What does this fold into?
Amino acid sequence: MERIRKGDEVVVITGKDRGKRGVVLDRIDERHLRVEGVNVAKKHVRPNPMKSITGGITDKTMPIDQSNVMLFNPATGKGERVGFKEVDGKKLRVFKSSGAPVGSGN
It folds into this structure.
């Protein structure tokens, strides 16, 4: 079970985008994920009239390693570690500091 899932709100804890918050768009693989507005790179696009693509410079969201982000806890307003707890035979994600369940889609 993944600690950080698609749709979770996360905080970047290291790198050039440190302190930024965003929503996880998708998981690329086991370790990497894309976060909205984080690790954005400029991409030069060549025009293609057959596909009606205009050329220019566009922004592209690049993957970031999951170790560089923490799940955002709205109760405290900070990023926090996540653990697991079994409740009624179901495995739930909980915040380590308070033991409160993670609210997004459980």
User: Anything to note?
Assistant: The longest strand covers residues 21-27.
